[in-house]
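Issue 218. Parser rejects a valid record. Input:
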Amino acid sequence: MKELEKVKRISIVSTLFILVILVGVLTFERPKNTYGVDTVTTLEKLVDNDNFVSIEEMNDPNMVLIDVRSSFEYNKGYLANAINMHGVEILNDDNQTILNDIKDSNKIGLLYGQNPEEANIPFTILYQLGFDNLKLLAANINYAQNKILITPSIIEKPEGDIKAYIDESVKKAQAASVKVVKQVKPAPKKVITVKKKKKRPVEGGC
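Output the parser choked on:
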């Protein structure tokens, strides 16, 4: 009788355990965004001068202007037909829908801010998420007499080989993360020889 009750208890516990696992699997939410491109590839793309678009080229009908400044700055003045996507809100659902529509229509999303540096972070995040149809506007945005002014931003061409520099940095970082454990040889045990004491002759007698 006791054995039967024990078996029943084990069966109940096992069933509950399986139910907990099933509920956990069914209610588990996958992250909305997962990186599809590694950081090294993204950095190489970011320093590629072919990735920048000049002011003269920005009116290409195949390009969609995306203003990554705050809504306050955007409302003060923006480039014609530009869509406002503040950098800190670039991953919200509405912006993701617009970005996907731009990509699906085979158009280029042209990011700009007060300067190219302001658009770098949104570009890096989006490119790593798989939005490979993005470019940066090589321009500075300023105001004068309540009018927006756009001036060219000089993008210096790197003198050195940036790809080689990034590859070398990655190698050094990987080498530093590998811990080399040195094997310490145990010291040889000292053998102590114990000398036996000589037995003294038994003294005695009357």
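Fixed in the parser; the record now loads. Residues 25-29 have pLDDT under 50 and may be disordered.
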